[in-house]
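pasting for ref
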Amino acid sequence: MSYGCYMSTTRAIRGAERRAEILRAALEVIAERGYRGASLGAVAERVGLTQQGLLHYFPTKEAMLVAVLEERDQWDAMPDSHWRLDLLASLVDYNSMRAGIVQTFSALLGESVTEEHPARDFFTGRYENVRANMVGILRSEYGERLPSGLTPERAAPLLVAVMDGLQYQWLLAPEKVDMAGAFRDFLTLLGEKES
């Protein structure tokens, strides 16, 4: 390997590490202050950069926000064909161990319902994909009808609403809301699979 190639690779690795550090700091700042209260300056300060230095990695606050959201989704990514209801319960368990990330996601989701929010398109597209994935999970688990008679298409938005709604309740009162237990109770309400 030539010296120039080595230096280029080293710079790329350092750049990726720095970018990851910035995203972690942005996640923390957004969790503490919300998106509107978070500033590029606050994130830059947390990682020991000037605001101008931060702009080298993320040209706008909006670009940084979308990168944070995409990074967060990568942590939970799994090929669609591998998702099952019991794995969703495991995801809820996992989320109960990372309150800061759940808090940031929930705060951004709440803020994104306003017309001009930069994450609105991200969350709109994300929920279309999540609902479609839930339809597939429910169909593979129950077929064309759940024991209640609902189709997977009708039940999927309810499943997503329960997952997200439990997160909000748990964030507000973790000592009173057993998020993982309540989600498993909901799965019981969906009914047993037909043999």
